[in-house]
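anyone else get weird line breaks when pasting these?? whatever heres mine. first is seq + C-alpha cells for prot A
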Amino acid sequence: MSLRQPNTELPMLRLLVVGSLAAAACSDRDLAMDSAGAGDTTTTAGSASTSTSNGTADTTAVPSGSTSADDTSDEPTGPSWCPPEAPNCVGFDVLIVVDNSATMAQEQAHVAANFGPIVEALEELTNAADLRVYPSVNLMVTTTDVGHPLCADPGGSARRGAPVHDGCNSRIASFTHGAVDVQSACTDVCPVDIVPTDPFVHFELGGTNVPDGTPAQALSCIGPQGIDGCAYESPLEAMLLALDPAACWNDPSQPGCAEDPEWAGFDKPFLRDGAPLAIIIISDGVECSVDAPDGEVYFTDDDTYWEIDPDTGMPTASPAICWNAGVTCEGPTQDGAWTGCLSTDNPVLHPTDRYLDALKDLEEIQDKDVFLLGILGVPEVTSHNPMSPFEPIAGGVLALNERVWTEADLTPAELDAGVTVEHKVWEFGDIAPGCANERGTAIFPNRVHEVCASLDIPDDPRTPDLYEFQPRCCIESICDDDYSAAIQCLTPNVSGPPVPKG
C-alpha cells in the first residue's frame, strides 16, 4: 500500500455532561483556590436552606436522598467560590462549541432540544457515594466559525471563540441559509429570549445570573447557533480562542475590555482557577483550523490539495482541502478502506500540538482537570465496559471504517438531484461519512479525536497491582438519537483512588 498523497482523488447530550463532570466532582484534588466569583446570584438555582445574594433566606427543602446544610461540618466542602452553605460543592467551567455550518441544518433542532437538559442534569448531579452534589457552574457557548479566506465574510461575522450570549431570536436570520429554513430550532426551545447577565450562564446553590428565568431556559436560548457559519469548521481553534486567559470574557480587567461595546459592563470571568473544565464539541464535519496566513494560500492560490469539480472538470477549492491537507492515510485497500489515518504536520492547518499544549497549560497554570466530549461523525457506541472506568468497548470510534465514498452513501434525494460520488469527493475529500441517518451525514474529524484522546490518563505500568486509567475523552455519534449508554463513559468512580487489578 502507498502513502496517501494530496490530489489522489441530546435527552441525550446531558448524559455525556453528567458523566464527565461527575468524575470531576469526586476528585480528591484540592479545588479551594482563590478566584473571583461568577455571576450575580439573583434567583434560586439549587434546593437547600441557604442565603441569597441579598441576604434573605431560601428555605426550599432539600430533595430526598441528598445531604442538607445542617449535615455538614464546619470544614470547607468545596472551592472558595462555592456558597459556604452548599454541601458537597464543586465547581465546573463548561465550554460548548457548536457547529453552525449549513450541513448542520437537520441536526440543529436535535442538538437545541438538549441544551436545557444539560443544566437539569447538573442540578441533579450525584457523586460516587450517591450523595447530591451542588455545583457552581459557568457554562459558555461559542461556534466553530473563526473566519476563513473562502467564506463570504472572512472573519467579519465569525465569533472566533467569543461567547454567544444573546438569545437566538435576536439572531433568527442566522437560521436561514439559501432556501433552507430551520428557525424552529430556535423558537421551539426559546419562544422568548431569556439571557444571562454575563457572557455565560452561571448557577449555584441559591443563585443564578439569569434574572428573568431559569439557567435551563437561558442555555436553551443562547445555545442554538443557526446554519450561516463558515463551512470550514474550526472547532479546535474556536476552543483555543474561547479559553484564551487574556480574552475579555476570561479576564475583564484586560486593557480595552471596558471600552469594547460588546464586553463593557461585564466584570466576571468565565474561567476560574481550580474549576474542572469540560469541553463539548458538537460537529458533523472535518476539523479545519487554518494556519493563517501561511495556510491560506492553499485555499486561494495553491491547488495542491484541491479536488476536481465534476461540473467544471477543473480543480477547485472546497472543504475537501481540510481532509486532504489535515489527514494522511495508507491506502485505499482493494475494498476502499483507508488505514492508519493520522493528522499531518504541514503549513496548511495548525498542528494538533497547538491545542494539546494549550490544554496542558490550563491544567498546570490554572489547576484545572480538563475533559473533552465529542458529539461527532462516528458510528453509535453499542457497548461500554460494565466495570469501571466504563469506557466504550464496541461501536463508536472502535467501529469506525474510514473509507472512500461509494454510491451507497448517497441519499435518494441526492441521487434524484443528480449528485454523484465525484460531487461528494470534491466537496469533502475521498472520506465517506462516519455515520448517517435521516438528518444527514457526518464525517469523522481525526484531529479532534487526537486532541481528545490525549487527555486520557493512562495506566501506570510501574504499579502492576493498580489500575489508574482515567478516561478524560468521550466520543459519541452525532447521528445517534440515544446517548444514554454514555452516562457510564466518564463516571464518578474514575476520579476515585486507583482500584486493584484482578
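and prot B, same format (seq, then C-alpha cells)
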Amino acid sequence: MKLFQIPPLKASIRSALCIMLGTGMTLAFQSNAQAQSLIALYESAKAYDANYQGAKALFEASKYKADESLAGLLPNISLSTTNQHQTVNGYVAGQQPTPTYQQLLGTHVASLTAIQPLYNPTNYATYKQSKKQLSQSASQLIAAEQDLLIRVSQAYFDLLASQDSLEVVRAQRAAIGEQLAAAKRNFEVGTATITDSREAQARYDLNTSQEIAATNDVRVKKLILDQLVGMTNTHPKPLAKGVKLPQLQKEDPEIWVREAEDTHPSILNARLALEVAQIEVEKSYSGHKPTINFQTQFTDQVNLGGTNSSGVLIGNSEAKSNSSSFAIVMNLPLFAGLYTHNRIQETISLEEKARDDLEAARRSVSLNTRTAYLGVASGLSQVKALEAAQNSSQVALEANKLGYNVGIRINIDVLNAQSQLYQTKGELAKARYAVLVGSLKLKQANGTLSSEDLVEVNNLLDK
C-alpha cells in the first residue's frame, strides 16, 4: 500500500505549462503593444512629479525677484492729486438767518515727483545678491531634475528586476514540477524511494510561496512606478537580448571628483551661497555710508474763489499757480544705536558658516563620487562573475541530471543544482540593472547627469 496518494502530475503539469505559455504570450503581446520606454516615462514624470514642479516654480519666482531688486536702482516716479471743496455762506447782522450770498472755495493740486538714486550701496548690493540667488535657484532646479532622473530609473529597473525574479521563480517551479513527476514515476517502478518524492514536493511547495511573494513584489513595484510617473498599469520595456553593459568612461575616480568641482549642483549652490553672504557683509557696511538721490517735483495748483483787499468775499474767481523744484539730497547715518556694528559682526559670522558649508559640500560630493565609482566598478565585475557562475551552474545541473538518471546522484542533488542555477539567474538580472542605475548615480554624484545619459540607457532597451 502507498503511504500517500499523489495525483499524477504529468498531464497537469503539461496543462499548467500550456496555460502559463498562453498567458505569457498574451502578456507579451500586451507588453509589446503598450510598453513604455524609459524616456517616455521620464517625460511623463517631469509633468507630474510635485518635487520637480515645485523646484521649477521656485526658479520662475526667483527670476521675478531678481527683476524686483532692479527697482532700487531705477527712477521712482509718482503722481499725487488733491481736490478740496468748501462752501462759504455770508450773513448780514440783524437780518433773517438766511445767507445773503454763497461762495464756493476749492483747491486742486497735482504734483509729479521723480527720485533717481545716484548713490545707494545697499540697493546695489541687493541687486547683486538677487542675481546670485537666481543662479542658486537654477542649480537647485538642476539638482531636482537629476533626482527625478534617478528616481524614475530606479523605479523602472526595480520593476524589471521584480518581473525577472517572478519569471525565474515560475521557471524554477516548472523545473521542480518535472523533477517531482520523475521522482514519482521512479518510486512507482521501484527505482527510487519515497524520500525523493517528498523532497521534490517540499521544494515545489516552497517555490509556490516564493511565487506568491514575487507576484506581490511586482505589484508593489508597479504601483511605485505608476505613482511616480502619473500613469496607471505601466509596462516598462525590458533590456534587449544580449545587450552589453556600458563600461566606465573614465577609469580614474579622481577625474570624476575633479569634474564635480565645476558641475555639481550642491557645490555650485554652496559657492553661490558664500558669494551671497560676502555681499551681505558688504551690504552691512553700507549702514555707515551715505545715500544720494536726485529729486525733482512739479506742482500745479488751482484755487477757486477769493477775497478782495478788505477781506470781503468776491465772485467765483480762479487763481492758478505752478512750481517746479530740483534737488540733490544726501542722507548720512550718524548713529543707529549700534545696529550697524552688530549687523556687520553677524554677517561676518554667517559668511564663515557659508564657507564651512562649501567645504562640507565638497567633501560630501567627493565621498559620494568615489563610493558610486567603486559601486559601478564592483558591479561590472560582479556581472562577469555571475555570468560565469550561470554557465557553471547550468553545466552542473546537466551533470547532476545525468548522474541521477544513471543512479550515481540522488534527487536532492538535482534539486540543489536547480536552485543554484535559478538563484544565479536572478542575481545576475539584478546585478545588471544595478550597474545601469549605478552608472547614472555616478554621474549624479559628480553632477554631470543629464537627460542625454538617460537616452544612452534607453537605447539598451528592447525596441
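btw re prot B: Residues 1-33, 307-314 have pLDDT under 50 and may be disordered. The first helix runs from residue 10 to 34.
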